[in-house]
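Can you make up a polypeptide sequence alongside its tokenized fold?
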Amino acid sequence: MKQLDFNRIILPCLARFTFIPDLLEKDWHENPVANAFWLLSSSEYRSRSEGRDLIMGKCDVDAVMAIVYDLRKTVERLTNAQSNFISTLRIVATRKQCPACLKLDGTLVQVDKMLSDFLMGAPQFPHEIQSSDVIAWCEAPWFADTIKMRPGDDPEFHAWLVNLLADRRY
């Protein structure tokens, strides 16, 4: 993901979280904290450490880093699915989800709808959990590809394979 895409897609989604600093706030080098958020979303240790240093003491860095990374990871998964012509994904919930999201385990979601929710700044995952004394959020679940039958595939084998994998977690 490029920084322009990050600024266009991810930054508007951060306004939903009460513990995320305002995007106009400055970091310790007098740059907008949005630049630090970009560094925090990286999968490289060096970039994440640099981003942590820029906003240390201004917010709960671990919570902000987890949310920003989770948002970026989810958008990248959805855009990869879209570029591979996968229109639906199956939600695979884990113990890290809230009770409401655990109920969504196994349901199918439309990739285009999920991406449009991100572009509007209101994604379904991740989301904040209201708590009076601690910062809490529900992480995004895993998304598994749906198995589609291609021309020339054996319909009986396809049905057997879908049934076999229906209850598996991966």
In short: DSSP finds seven helices and five strands in the chain. The helical segments are 3-13, 33-40, 45-55, 61-83, 99-102, 111-119, 155-165.
